[in-house]
Design a protein that fits this description.
This protein has nine helices and five strands, in the order αααβαββαβααβαα. The protein is an alpha+beta fold. Among the domains are: about 85-150 and about 220-230, Alpha-Beta Plaits; about 155-220. A five-stranded mixed β-sheet has the order 2-3-5-1-4.
Length: about 300
């Protein structure tokens, strides 16, 4: 072995040692970085939406019923009706009886007594499965149906969407609470608590929307107007005779004159003030005229 071989072997060993040291440092840096970001990656994994997780699963068996098929159609039914009746109070009692039979209730009730007619303006909430029967009972009576309008809105998709969002938010909230128990720094605790607070507010809002939608589906709304025409006859206003009106005119004229005199008398302090102002004004003018006459001479 000559000197050149010895030098090349030393250089090769030095390079190998340097490469090993660099690899060890790189691995330690990656380990620290992974420890620092562990909570963040865990949070991201925890926040994967339910719908995204479902997509990553295997395709369901075609013979397995789909979840949406288990959700019955959600229909909101509303109606407007006007009935002309012969006895409005008896008709109102019949509506009260129908409400009791169908487990419905009034959400608003108003009665009007005008010159030409009586009116009951009613807002009824009727169980969804009794709505058609209630309408049919009203139409089968002695009342004359003057107006009728029935509408139905399918809100099944909206209902499913709200339920899915509610489920997702509950899942997120549960996982964030688990993360909160694992948090180590104050910064992580505060950030997760803020996320939990926002999720709780969104959860409450979504639950309220779902409750309102359920109420609209379970109880249909009917706006009902009962009307009874009055036997109205025009009666012209009776006027007094000419002699009576002439007498009243003289009386009103005399009363007006007396009122004017009394007003003038009540203002007597102002008359004294006005007289004083006029006297001073004339006195000043007279003095000015005398001065002009003396200067011209």
């Amino acid at each position: 072995m000559n000197i050149f071989d010895y030098i090349s072997i030393n250089l090769f060993m030095k390079n190998t040692i340097l490469l090993l040291l660099a690899a060890i440092l790189l691995c330690s840096c990656q380990t620290d970085q992974s420890n620092t970001l562990g909570l963040e990656f865990a949070a991201e994994d925890e926040m994967i939406p339910v719908t995204r997780q479902t997509k990553s699963m295997a395709a369901p068996n075609p013979n397995t019923p789909i979840l949406q098929q288990n959700t019955s159609a959600k229909i909101i039914k509303d109606g407007n009706m006007s009935l002309e009746v012969n006895d409005i109070h008896a008709s109102k009692q019949q509506v009260d009886s129908l409400l009791h039979q169908n487990k419905a209730y009034y959400s608003n009730e108003r009665f009007n007594n005008s010159t030409y007619e009586f009116n009951y303006i009613l807002t009824l909430r009727i169980p969804n499965n009794h709505f058609e029967l209630f309408i049919a009972s009203l139409e089968s009576g002695n009342a004359n149906v003057t107006f009728k309008e029935i509408t139905a809105r399918d809100v099944t998709d909206q209902f499913i969407d709200l339920e899915a969002r509610l489920t997702n938010k509950k899942s997120y909230l549960k996982r964030y609470r688990e993360l909160l128990s694992k948090a180590k720094t104050i910064k992580e605790i505060l950030e997760i608590q803020e996320k939990i607070r926002n999720l709780e507010e969104e959860l409450e809002s979504t639950a309220g929307q779902l409750k309102y939608l359920n109420d609209q589906v379970n109880f249909s709304t009917l706006r009902l107007v009962l009307t009874q025409k009055k036997d109205y006859k025009y009666k012209p206003t009776e006027r007094d005779s000419f002699a009576e009106r002439l007498k009243q005119s003289f009386s009103k004229g005399w009363n007006g004159f007396v009122d004017f005199i009394l007003i003038v008398i009540k203002a007597w302090p102002f008359w004294f003030i006005l007289a004083g102002v006029i006297y001073v004004f004339r006195r000043i003018r007279r003095i000015k005229k005398l001065k002009k006459t003396d200067s011209s001479k």
